[in-house]
Amino acid sequence: MTRAKYVAAALLFAATLGLSACGPSKSNFPGQPTGQGAPNNPTGEKQRESVFGEDGLKLFGGGSDSDQSGGAGIGVNSFLWRASLDTISFMPLASADPFGGVLITDWYQDPKAPGERFKVTVYILDKRLRADGVKVAVFRQSRSANGSEWVDMAVNPDTPIQIENAILVRARQLRINTIEAQETK
Fold first, then answer.
1. Is the per-residue pLDDT at 176 higher than 70?
2. Residues 120, 125, 126, CA angle at the centre, nearest 5°?
3. pLDDT tens digit string along 116-134?
4. How many CA atoms lie within 13 A of 135 on its CB side?
5. CA dist., res. 140 & res. 119, Å (int)
6. Is 174 helix (H, G, I), strand (E, B) or coil?
7. Sign, Cα dihedral of 40, 44, 49, 54
8. Is 12 helix (H, G, I), strand (E, B) or coil?
9. DSSP 137
10. Among 117, 38, 133, which Cα is nearest to 76's?
11. Which phi and psi angles does 124 have, rounded to 5°?
């Protein structure tokens, strides 16, 4: 046999040996899997803590029907999240973090006011649909006197409040629509 055949045979033997070690064990050691736990808790004796909370990570609407938080797979209230996206949809998004509940828009320049631009950051602070569950920060810039650079300007204090109220109104509409859709089933 040539050297290449010996190497191939040795690799085949090692692969077969390695794969045979992956089979189920029939040993009766204490703490053997009972089929009730997860891979890192095979006996199922204790409840594991999770980074994603006691219910774990729910994606695409997974979970019980009694979940009133509206958080289907995201870390914040899904009604507030969707309402925030709907409310600021006219502005380009720079970043969206559904687990942290932060939406950041890119600078938006209204065609009617070419000398100024706005940027909005929306923070969703709660898994519940509450009036204090959303916080909005608005940033405004206008062109300098020579028109070559943008200068930070003060924002009317009512502007973030108006955006927050618009988000809350839209979130309530979405929740009502969801409840009505469930009642018609």
1. yes
2. 140
3. 999 999 999 999 999 999 9
4. 7
5. 7
6. helix
7. positive
8. helix
9. E
10. 133
11. -100, 120
Structure token pair of residue 25: 């064990």
Residue keyed to tokens 């923070």 = 123
DSSP string, 21-53: TTSPP----TT---SSS-TTSTT--SPPP-TT-
Q: Containing H/E element for 123?
A: strand 116-124
CA distance 185 to 183: 5
* H-helix segments, 113-157: none
Whole-angstrom Cα distance, residue 172 to residue 128? 12
Cα 139 from Cα 156, distance rounded (Å)? 10
Q: Are 174 and 82 in contact (CB under 8 A)?
A: yes
147-154: long-range contacts at Cβ-Cβ below 8 A with a sequence spacing of 24 or more?
150/117, 153/116
Helix (H) or strand (E) holding 134: strand 134-143
Q: d(Cα 162, Cα 95) in Å, to the nearest integer?
A: 22
- The mean predicted confidence, pLDDT, of the chain is 79
